[in-house]
Amino acid sequence: MMNESYVFYQGKIVDESQVTIDIRCKAFNYGLGCFEGIRAYWDEEKQQLYGFRLKEHYERLLQSCKALYMDIPYTAEELCNWTVELLKKNNFKTTTYIRPIVYKGSTELTPTLYKDNDNRVLIYCQPLGKYVGSNALRTAVSSWTRISDNMLPPRTKATAAYLNSALASLEVLQNGFDEAIFLTQQGNVCEGPGENIFLVKNGKLITPPVSDHILEGITRNVVIELAKNELNMEVVERSVARTELYNSDEVFFSGTAMEVTSVVEVDRRIVGSGEEGQVCKKFKELFFDITKANNPKYRHYCTPVY
Ligand SMILES: Cc1ncc(COP(=O)(O)O)c(C=O)c1O
Protein backbone atom coordinates (compact mmCIF):
# COMPACT_ATOMS: atom_id res chain seq x y z
CA MET A 1 0.00 0.00 0.00
CA MET A 2 1.08 3.57 -0.64
CA ASN A 3 2.48 5.49 2.32
CA GLU A 4 0.12 7.98 3.90
CA SER A 5 -2.77 7.52 1.55
CA TYR A 6 -5.92 9.19 2.75
CA VAL A 7 -9.41 8.18 1.70
CA PHE A 8 -12.91 9.48 2.32
CA TYR A 9 -14.94 6.88 4.18
CA GLN A 10 -18.37 7.25 5.74
CA GLY A 11 -18.23 11.01 6.20
CA LYS A 12 -14.60 11.44 7.21
CA ILE A 13 -11.14 11.59 5.71
CA VAL A 14 -9.10 8.78 7.25
CA ASP A 15 -5.88 6.90 6.68
CA GLU A 16 -6.44 4.20 4.05
CA SER A 17 -5.18 1.49 6.45
CA GLN A 18 -8.17 2.15 8.70
CA VAL A 19 -10.71 1.00 6.10
CA THR A 20 -11.44 -2.69 5.72
CA ILE A 21 -14.28 -4.61 4.14
CA ASP A 22 -15.99 -7.63 5.59
CA ILE A 23 -15.44 -10.87 3.63
CA ARG A 24 -19.19 -11.53 3.93
CA CYS A 25 -20.39 -8.17 2.63
CA LYS A 26 -22.76 -8.09 -0.31
CA ALA A 27 -20.48 -5.82 -2.29
CA PHE A 28 -17.72 -8.43 -2.25
CA ASN A 29 -19.97 -11.47 -2.65
CA TYR A 30 -22.42 -10.19 -5.24
CA GLY A 31 -20.97 -7.02 -6.70
CA LEU A 32 -23.69 -4.86 -5.17
CA GLY A 33 -22.20 -1.44 -5.66
CA CYS A 34 -21.68 1.35 -8.14
CA PHE A 35 -18.83 3.72 -8.77
CA GLU A 36 -17.35 6.63 -10.65
CA GLY A 37 -14.03 7.36 -12.27
CA ILE A 38 -12.88 10.97 -12.26
CA ARG A 39 -9.66 12.69 -13.17
CA ALA A 40 -7.96 15.69 -11.68
CA TYR A 41 -5.42 17.26 -14.02
CA TRP A 42 -2.15 18.73 -12.77
CA ASP A 43 -0.93 21.90 -14.47
CA GLU A 44 2.79 22.23 -13.84
CA GLU A 45 2.93 25.83 -15.06
CA LYS A 46 0.15 27.05 -12.82
CA GLN A 47 1.09 24.61 -10.03
CA GLN A 48 -2.58 23.77 -9.83
CA LEU A 49 -4.65 20.59 -9.74
CA TYR A 50 -8.06 20.75 -11.45
CA GLY A 51 -10.89 18.32 -10.74
CA PHE A 52 -12.55 17.71 -14.10
CA ARG A 53 -16.36 17.87 -14.23
CA LEU A 54 -16.67 16.75 -10.61
CA LYS A 55 -20.30 17.75 -10.34
CA GLU A 56 -21.38 15.78 -13.42
CA HIS A 57 -19.63 12.68 -12.10
CA TYR A 58 -21.30 12.92 -8.70
CA GLU A 59 -24.68 13.62 -10.27
CA ARG A 60 -24.24 10.46 -12.31
CA LEU A 61 -23.23 8.55 -9.16
CA LEU A 62 -26.39 9.73 -7.40
CA GLN A 63 -28.46 8.64 -10.42
CA SER A 64 -26.83 5.20 -10.23
CA CYS A 65 -27.56 5.04 -6.48
CA LYS A 66 -31.18 5.89 -7.17
CA ALA A 67 -31.55 3.19 -9.82
CA LEU A 68 -29.93 0.61 -7.54
CA TYR A 69 -31.82 1.62 -4.40
CA MET A 70 -28.68 2.65 -2.58
CA ASP A 71 -29.47 5.95 -0.88
CA ILE A 72 -26.56 7.96 0.43
CA PRO A 73 -26.75 11.03 2.65
CA TYR A 74 -24.74 13.45 0.50
CA THR A 75 -25.51 15.86 -2.30
CA ALA A 76 -23.34 16.08 -5.42
CA GLU A 77 -22.00 19.38 -4.13
CA GLU A 78 -20.98 17.88 -0.79
CA LEU A 79 -19.20 15.04 -2.56
CA CYS A 80 -17.37 17.57 -4.77
CA ASN A 81 -16.22 19.43 -1.66
CA TRP A 82 -15.05 16.23 0.03
CA THR A 83 -13.13 15.32 -3.11
CA VAL A 84 -11.30 18.64 -3.11
CA GLU A 85 -10.49 18.15 0.59
CA LEU A 86 -9.25 14.64 -0.08
CA LEU A 87 -6.97 15.69 -2.94
CA LYS A 88 -5.54 18.45 -0.76
CA LYS A 89 -4.99 16.07 2.13
CA ASN A 90 -3.11 13.67 -0.15
CA ASN A 91 -1.14 16.65 -1.47
CA PHE A 92 -1.21 15.31 -5.03
CA LYS A 93 0.84 17.34 -7.51
CA THR A 94 0.30 15.11 -10.48
CA THR A 95 -2.63 14.03 -12.64
CA THR A 96 -4.79 11.87 -10.42
CA TYR A 97 -7.57 9.33 -10.77
CA ILE A 98 -10.40 9.54 -8.25
CA ARG A 99 -12.57 6.53 -7.48
CA PRO A 100 -15.79 7.12 -5.55
CA ILE A 101 -17.59 3.87 -4.78
CA VAL A 102 -20.89 3.21 -3.05
CA TYR A 103 -21.39 -0.35 -1.91
CA LYS A 104 -23.47 -2.65 0.21
CA GLY A 105 -21.73 -3.27 3.51
CA SER A 106 -24.40 -5.68 4.77
CA THR A 107 -23.26 -9.23 5.52
CA GLU A 108 -26.72 -10.72 5.09
CA LEU A 109 -26.55 -13.84 2.94
CA THR A 110 -29.15 -12.90 0.34
CA PRO A 111 -28.19 -10.73 -2.65
CA THR A 112 -31.03 -8.27 -2.15
CA LEU A 113 -31.14 -4.50 -2.30
CA TYR A 114 -34.41 -4.62 -0.43
CA LYS A 115 -34.68 -3.31 3.15
CA ASP A 116 -31.00 -2.78 3.44
CA ASN A 117 -29.66 0.67 4.20
CA ASP A 118 -26.04 -0.27 4.76
CA ASN A 119 -24.65 1.79 1.90
CA ARG A 120 -20.99 2.68 2.39
CA VAL A 121 -19.39 5.60 0.62
CA LEU A 122 -15.68 5.45 -0.09
CA ILE A 123 -13.49 7.72 -2.21
CA TYR A 124 -9.87 6.88 -2.91
CA CYS A 125 -7.43 8.35 -5.37
CA GLN A 126 -4.10 7.62 -6.99
CA PRO A 127 -1.80 9.17 -9.57
CA LEU A 128 -2.67 8.15 -13.14
CA GLY A 129 -0.87 9.22 -16.28
CA LYS A 130 -1.80 7.79 -19.65
CA TYR A 131 -4.12 4.80 -19.31
CA VAL A 132 -3.02 3.02 -22.49
CA GLY A 133 0.47 2.70 -23.87
CA SER A 134 -0.37 3.78 -27.40
CA ASN A 135 -1.92 6.72 -29.25
CA ALA A 136 -3.14 4.39 -31.98
CA LEU A 137 -5.09 1.40 -30.73
CA ARG A 138 -5.54 -1.96 -32.44
CA THR A 139 -8.97 -3.26 -31.51
CA ALA A 140 -11.29 -6.19 -32.15
CA VAL A 141 -14.97 -6.80 -31.64
CA SER A 142 -15.41 -9.17 -28.69
CA SER A 143 -17.44 -12.36 -28.93
CA TRP A 144 -18.92 -11.35 -25.56
CA THR A 145 -22.17 -9.42 -26.01
CA ARG A 146 -22.63 -6.18 -24.08
CA ILE A 147 -24.97 -6.43 -21.09
CA SER A 148 -28.21 -4.61 -21.76
CA ASP A 149 -30.20 -1.99 -19.89
CA ASN A 150 -32.84 -4.52 -18.90
CA MET A 151 -30.29 -7.04 -17.69
CA LEU A 152 -27.52 -5.21 -15.84
CA PRO A 153 -27.85 -1.56 -16.82
CA PRO A 154 -24.47 -0.18 -18.00
CA ARG A 155 -25.83 3.29 -17.28
CA THR A 156 -25.62 2.59 -13.52
CA LYS A 157 -21.87 1.92 -13.61
CA ALA A 158 -22.50 -1.04 -11.32
CA THR A 159 -19.40 -2.88 -10.09
CA ALA A 160 -20.89 -6.22 -11.22
CA ALA A 161 -21.11 -4.92 -14.80
CA TYR A 162 -17.36 -4.86 -15.09
CA LEU A 163 -17.11 -8.64 -15.29
CA ASN A 164 -18.63 -8.23 -18.77
CA SER A 165 -15.91 -5.67 -19.54
CA ALA A 166 -13.20 -7.89 -18.07
CA LEU A 167 -14.20 -10.90 -20.19
CA ALA A 168 -14.15 -8.86 -23.38
CA SER A 169 -10.75 -7.38 -22.49
CA LEU A 170 -9.37 -10.79 -21.62
CA GLU A 171 -10.41 -12.18 -24.97
CA VAL A 172 -8.97 -9.44 -27.14
CA LEU A 173 -5.77 -8.97 -25.12
CA GLN A 174 -5.10 -12.72 -25.35
CA ASN A 175 -5.58 -12.38 -29.10
CA GLY A 176 -2.94 -9.65 -29.25
CA PHE A 177 -5.12 -6.53 -29.53
CA ASP A 178 -5.08 -3.40 -27.36
CA GLU A 179 -8.77 -2.97 -26.61
CA ALA A 180 -12.19 -4.57 -27.17
CA ILE A 181 -15.33 -3.22 -28.82
CA PHE A 182 -18.70 -4.52 -27.66
CA LEU A 183 -21.76 -5.16 -29.78
CA THR A 184 -25.26 -5.04 -28.28
CA GLN A 185 -27.61 -8.03 -28.28
CA GLN A 186 -29.07 -6.57 -31.47
CA GLY A 187 -25.62 -6.55 -33.05
CA ASN A 188 -25.03 -2.80 -33.02
CA VAL A 189 -21.76 -1.20 -32.02
CA CYS A 190 -21.99 -0.29 -28.32
CA GLU A 191 -18.82 0.89 -26.56
CA GLY A 192 -15.48 -0.31 -25.24
CA PRO A 193 -15.05 -2.04 -21.86
CA GLY A 194 -14.48 1.36 -20.23
CA GLU A 195 -14.96 4.00 -22.91
CA ASN A 196 -17.39 5.31 -25.52
CA ILE A 197 -16.77 5.13 -29.25
CA PHE A 198 -16.97 7.64 -32.11
CA LEU A 199 -16.72 7.35 -35.89
CA VAL A 200 -15.81 10.10 -38.33
CA LYS A 201 -17.28 9.69 -41.79
CA ASN A 202 -17.39 12.37 -44.49
CA GLY A 203 -16.86 15.11 -41.92
CA LYS A 204 -19.70 13.90 -39.67
CA LEU A 205 -19.26 12.65 -36.14
CA ILE A 206 -21.26 9.49 -35.44
CA THR A 207 -21.73 7.77 -32.07
CA PRO A 208 -24.14 5.12 -30.70
CA PRO A 209 -27.21 6.62 -28.99
CA VAL A 210 -27.79 6.39 -25.24
CA SER A 211 -30.54 3.84 -25.91
CA ASP A 212 -27.94 1.39 -27.29
CA HIS A 213 -26.92 0.28 -23.78
CA ILE A 214 -23.92 2.54 -23.35
CA LEU A 215 -22.73 4.32 -20.26
CA GLU A 216 -23.55 7.96 -20.92
CA GLY A 217 -19.98 9.12 -20.79
CA ILE A 218 -19.09 12.54 -19.47
CA THR A 219 -16.14 12.66 -21.86
CA ARG A 220 -18.57 11.64 -24.63
CA ASN A 221 -20.64 14.71 -23.78
CA VAL A 222 -17.56 16.91 -23.92
CA VAL A 223 -16.61 15.51 -27.35
CA ILE A 224 -20.14 16.12 -28.68
CA GLU A 225 -20.09 19.67 -27.32
CA LEU A 226 -16.67 20.39 -28.84
CA ALA A 227 -17.73 18.95 -32.19
CA LYS A 228 -20.74 21.24 -32.37
CA ASN A 229 -19.29 24.39 -30.82
CA GLU A 230 -15.64 24.34 -31.79
CA LEU A 231 -15.31 22.21 -34.91
CA ASN A 232 -18.67 23.00 -36.45
CA MET A 233 -19.26 19.30 -37.15
CA GLU A 234 -22.60 17.63 -37.53
CA VAL A 235 -23.08 15.09 -34.73
CA VAL A 236 -25.28 12.06 -35.35
CA GLU A 237 -26.32 9.82 -32.47
CA ARG A 238 -27.62 6.64 -34.08
CA SER A 239 -27.13 2.90 -34.08
CA VAL A 240 -23.92 1.86 -35.81
CA ALA A 241 -23.35 -1.43 -37.66
CA ARG A 242 -20.12 -3.36 -37.10
CA THR A 243 -18.80 -2.99 -40.64
CA GLU A 244 -19.27 0.78 -40.52
CA LEU A 245 -16.23 0.74 -38.26
CA TYR A 246 -14.20 -0.75 -41.12
CA ASN A 247 -15.04 1.95 -43.64
CA SER A 248 -14.92 5.01 -41.41
CA ASP A 249 -12.39 7.75 -42.01
CA GLU A 250 -11.54 7.68 -38.31
CA VAL A 251 -12.57 5.87 -35.14
CA PHE A 252 -11.71 6.95 -31.61
CA PHE A 253 -12.55 6.26 -27.98
CA SER A 254 -13.50 8.71 -25.24
CA GLY A 255 -13.46 8.17 -21.48
CA THR A 256 -12.10 9.50 -18.22
CA ALA A 257 -9.27 6.98 -18.06
CA MET A 258 -8.91 6.56 -21.85
CA GLU A 259 -9.27 10.33 -22.49
CA VAL A 260 -9.45 10.74 -26.30
CA THR A 261 -7.54 7.98 -28.08
CA SER A 262 -7.61 6.96 -31.72
CA VAL A 263 -8.43 3.48 -33.01
CA VAL A 264 -6.47 2.54 -36.11
CA GLU A 265 -7.48 -1.07 -36.54
CA VAL A 266 -10.73 -3.01 -36.03
CA ASP A 267 -10.92 -6.78 -36.59
CA ARG A 268 -7.64 -6.74 -38.55
CA ARG A 269 -8.95 -4.06 -40.91
CA ILE A 270 -7.04 -0.79 -41.08
CA VAL A 271 -9.21 2.24 -40.27
CA GLY A 272 -8.63 5.31 -42.46
CA SER A 273 -4.94 6.04 -42.92
CA GLY A 274 -3.94 3.53 -40.24
CA GLU A 275 -2.61 6.39 -38.12
CA GLU A 276 -4.12 8.73 -35.57
CA GLY A 277 -6.58 10.84 -37.58
CA GLN A 278 -6.63 14.61 -37.94
CA VAL A 279 -10.09 15.01 -36.40
CA CYS A 280 -9.12 12.92 -33.39
CA LYS A 281 -5.98 15.04 -32.99
CA LYS A 282 -8.09 18.21 -32.95
CA PHE A 283 -10.38 16.79 -30.27
CA LYS A 284 -7.35 15.83 -28.20
CA GLU A 285 -5.87 19.30 -28.41
CA LEU A 286 -9.14 20.94 -27.44
CA PHE A 287 -9.78 18.39 -24.70
CA PHE A 288 -6.40 18.68 -22.99
CA ASP A 289 -6.59 22.46 -23.14
CA ILE A 290 -9.94 22.37 -21.37
CA THR A 291 -8.85 19.92 -18.67
CA LYS A 292 -6.21 22.39 -17.53
CA ALA A 293 -8.64 25.31 -17.45
CA ASN A 294 -6.86 27.10 -20.32
CA ASN A 295 -10.03 27.72 -22.31
CA PRO A 296 -12.18 30.42 -20.63
CA LYS A 297 -15.32 29.09 -22.32
CA TYR A 298 -15.02 25.80 -20.45
CA ARG A 299 -13.31 26.93 -17.26
CA HIS A 300 -16.41 26.03 -15.24
CA TYR A 301 -15.64 22.36 -15.96
CA CYS A 302 -12.55 22.61 -13.77
CA THR A 303 -12.43 22.81 -9.98
CA PRO A 304 -9.12 24.13 -8.66
CA VAL A 305 -7.91 22.16 -5.63
CA TYR A 306 -5.17 24.46 -4.30
C1 LIG B 1 -18.38 1.13 -19.82
C2 LIG B 1 -17.92 2.55 -19.90
N1 LIG B 1 -18.29 3.30 -20.95
C3 LIG B 1 -17.91 4.57 -21.08
C4 LIG B 1 -17.11 5.18 -20.13
C5 LIG B 1 -16.70 6.60 -20.31
O1 LIG B 1 -17.38 7.44 -19.42
P1 LIG B 1 -16.74 8.79 -18.89
O2 LIG B 1 -16.37 9.58 -20.07
O3 LIG B 1 -17.82 9.41 -18.09
O4 LIG B 1 -15.55 8.40 -18.09
C6 LIG B 1 -16.69 4.44 -19.02
C7 LIG B 1 -15.83 5.05 -18.01
O5 LIG B 1 -16.25 5.36 -16.95
C8 LIG B 1 -17.12 3.10 -18.89
O6 LIG B 1 -16.76 2.36 -17.84
Question: What does this molecule look like?
Answer:
The protein has 306 residues and is α+β, with helices and mostly antiparallel strands. It has two domains: 6-127, D-amino Acid Aminotransferase, Chain A, domain 1 (2-Layer Sandwich), CATH 3.30.470; 136-291, Alpha-Beta Barrel (D-amino Acid Aminotransferase, Chain A, domain 2), CATH 3.20.10.10. The chain has helices spanning 26-30, 54-67, 76-90, 162-174, 218-229, 242-246, 278-291; strands spanning 6-9, 12-15, 33-35, 38-43, 48-52, 96-104, 119-127, 136-141, 179-181, 196-201, 204-207, 235-237, 250-255, 259-266, 269-270, 302-304. Helix 2 crosses helix 3 (76-90). It is globular, with a radius of gyration of 19 Å. The protein binds pyridoxal-5'-phosphate (PLP). Pyridoxal-5'-phosphate is lined by residues 37, 154, 191, 194-196, 215, 217-220, 254-256.
- CATH class call of the largest domain: Alpha Beta
CATH architectural category of the largest domain:
Alpha-Beta Barrel
- Average pLDDT: 97
Quick one: how many beta strands?
16
> Ions, cofactors, ligands: which are bound?
pyridoxal-5'-phosphate
How does the helix and strand content classify structurally?
alpha+beta
Written as H for each helix and E for each strand, in order along the chain, the element string is: EEHEEEHHEEEHEEEHEHEEEHE
